[in-house]
Amino acid sequence: MSSETDQAEGAQKVYSASALPADELARMTDDIITALKTVYDPEIPADIYELGLIYKVDIEDDRTVKIDMTLTAPGCPVAGEMPGWVQDAVSTVEGVQSVDVAMVFDPPWTPDRMSEEAQFAVGWY
Questions:
Q1: Which terminus of the chain has a lower count of CB atoms within 10 Å, N or C?
Q2: What is the block-wise mean pLDDT of the chain (125 residues), using blocks of 10 residues?
Q3: String of DSSP letters for 10-53
Q4: Angstrom distance (rounded) from CA 32 to CA 92
Q5: DSSP SS3 for 5
Q6: By 3-state DSSP, what share of the chain in percent is helix, strand and coil, each rounded to 5?
């Protein structure tokens, strides 16, 4: 593992032991987050990053990006499509060689993972 970004309760933590230059790693991290914010659950008016559906982003030394994500519910109607949307969005980031998206359900998603921005978008704030 070269770099991981974990999103926990709306706070971003970056862990780095990367062979990539720090400025490139920071740019890629910011650009990946920006790309993730373009993907929306069609049933919820907030992006998947702000909803807290992205559990982990790992940028490998070879610029492969590994993403662990979840859904608001395992039976979500777009469960089969959402990983592809995430892969397509992150693949556009300069420097990314490939993207691997894993769907995980442990821990289960709960609304407390939502940012204030997402809570506002859905009318909970």
A1: C
A2: 49 64 93 97 90 96 96 86 97 97 94 93 79
A3: TEEEEEE--SS-HHHHHHHHHHHHHHHTT-B-TTSSSBTTTTT-
A4: 9
A5: strand
A6: 25, 25, 45
CA dist., res. 122 & res. 125, Å (int): 8
Tokens of residue 61, six digits: 């030394």
Q: What is the pTM of this model?
A: 0.83
Q: Cα angle vertex 27, ends 71, 50, to 5°?
A: 25
Dihedrals phi, psi of 59, to nearest 5 degrees: -100, 110
**Pick from 115, 99, 3: which is nearest to 53 by CA?**
115
